[in-house]
Amino acid sequence: MIRFENIGLRYGSGPEILRDISFMLAPGSFHFLTGASGAGKSSLLRLIYLSLRPTRGSLTVFGQNIDDLSRDQLPALRRKIGVVFQNFRLLDHLSALDNVALPLRMAGLAEAQVQDHVSELLRWVGLGNHLDAKPPTLSGGQQQRVAIARSVINRPRLILADEPTGNVDDGIGMRLLYLFEELNKLGTTMIIATHNEGLVEQFRHPRLHLENGTLTVIPPAGGSEG
What we know:
By secondary structure, the protein is an alpha/beta fold. It contains 7 helices and 10 strands. The strands form 2 sheets. Strands 6-7-8-3-9-10 form a 6-stranded mixed β-sheet, sandwiched between helices. A hairpin with a 5-residue loop joins strand 1 and strand 2. The chain is globular. It starts with a strand and ends in an 8-residue tail after the last strand. The mean pLDDT is 90.
């Protein structure tokens, strides 16, 4: 599904922040992406989401080398990817339900199904009493759960989550990771960037670890299957 071959990335004329990155992710895999703040986790996710192009090397997404794609072809690939951004990117004038419903409505799903699916998912992430609330009235953690629900509602082939548990307590964090695991069992490939070592250690998944601009694939340590 994803293949990096000797990828390098620099911004402008600065030094490379990612160097000689090579790895392959199989469909249906689940990886944590770890590393210190500033290690390049967000940049790596942006490369996979195709909002950045590498400075050098070869990047293949869904079996297609991005060097062979025109700018007009990129949106079709991005629609197969669900992204949880650190800044949430919610629409303040829409309710929580309407924010989460956007991908389903854009796909043309019947409104009755939209209402059922979205309400059920928001209840599952603990926001059943906030369906009509608009983002400015919600806490940071609640906004984050709305953003996560929106990213997973249409079951994309790949989910990229940038610190999805950063604004919630460990109890909610575990619940969100269980949601990601359930989607993974249905075939969705997962990449979860996090600095929360405690949560990572609870799950038996390998990690992509960034340090000093280079990447190491670390096999899963002990822990439960979740």
